[in-house]
Amino acid sequence: MTTLNAIGNVSYNVIDKWMIVSFVELLVIFILLFFLFREKKKKPNDFYVGEGVEDFKDVNIDFGNMFNSMFNARKLHSTLKRKIHPDLFPNDEEKIKIANELTARLNESQNDIAKMREIQSIAVEKLGIEF
Amino acid sequence: MIWNNIRNWFSDIIERNRFLRDWNRNAKDSYVSGIIPILMEARTTIGSTEYRHEFSKWMAGGFRVKVLSGKPMSRQELMEIGEFIIGDDTMVRKLVSNGWDTLELYDTAGTIGLKWQLKKYTLSLTNHPNRP
User: Fold this and answer.
1) Residue A56: which of B131, B14, B103, B98 has the closest Cα?
2) A17 at the B interface (CB within 8 A)?
3) Does A34 touch chain B (CB under 8 A)?
4) A48 to chain B: which residues are within 8 Å by CB?
5) What is the ipTM of this complex?
6) Chain A residues with CB-CB distance to B30 below 8 A
7) What is the pLDDT of residues B65-121, one digit of tens each?
8) Which residue of chain B is at minimal alpha-carbon distance from A33?
């Protein structure tokens, strides 16, 4: 804000309006930072933190296998399910045992194509199945 | 205390960006090599406020997967993709621990968009009395 005195000199007030604006902006920034970094009150029974939800931050995910499984696992699962069924080996106790184990493993890993490939290779090797 | 919070905030951002970059790179490689028939791209969105949990990042809780297939996808096809992601325990926990709370899925050609509450699927993995 400027004023003109009797002599004609221009004098400036010490407090400029832009300084006030910058102070207000600084205040707003501090308030926002306060809300951003304040300690959040934990609500009991709201969310289960245990069982290592936080620990999963460092777990690496095999994305290639995941995408492959997303579209191709179902087909391989149905093929394996049909081929390694224990009823296909009625006279061989050893093969029935292996087929039972493989079927159990197959049910656990029906969304993981890498594990199913392992089962497939075991089936080829031990049960003599051709795919 | 504030310094630690700021440092954690930056490390979380780096971790989230690394996760998104890995996802997009692998999705692109899988599509180019013909392993998967559609191209998927992930990015962060605001998410749904009603799906928030205590690890949610402010204004960045949505994990949106954009699907490019060249044709409008049916609700069933999108559901299958979403349920595969939701069915992966490690993936859900990783998403939750990195501050995402909503999984959003939509395709570029159609008009259908689906979303899932990640917290719900994490609770279902535990023996907590509040699980759905």
Assistant:
1) B98
2) no
3) no
4) 122-123, 126, 128, 130-131
5) 0.82
6) 64, 67-68
7) 999 888 888 888 889 899 999 888 888 888 988 889 999 998 888 788 899 998 888
8) B2
Does A67 contact B30 at a Cβ distance shorter than 8 Å? Answer: yes
B79 interface with A at CB cutoff 8 Å:
no
- C-beta of residue A73 within 8 angstroms of C-beta of residue A114: no
Is the domain spanning B2-123 CATH 3.30.300? The answer is yes
Question: What residue spans define the domains of chain A?
Answer: 62-127
Q: Where are the beta strands (DSSP E) in chain B?
A: 39-45, 62-68, 102-107, 113-117
Which amino acid, B45? Answer: T
User: Angle, nearest 10°, between helix axes B75-87 and B89-97?
Assistant: 80
**Is the Cβ of B98 closer than 8 Å to some Cβ of chain A?**
yes
Is B125 in CB contact (< 8 Å) with chain A?
Answer: yes
pTM above 0.80, yes or no: no
CB A2 within 8 A of CB A11: yes
Say how far apart CA A93 and CA A36 lie, in whole Å. 65
Tell me the CA end-to-end span of chain B in Å, nearest whole number.
36
In chain B, where the domains are located = 2-123
The dihedral formed by the CA atoms of B121, B125, B126 and B132, expressed in degrees to the nearest 10: 40
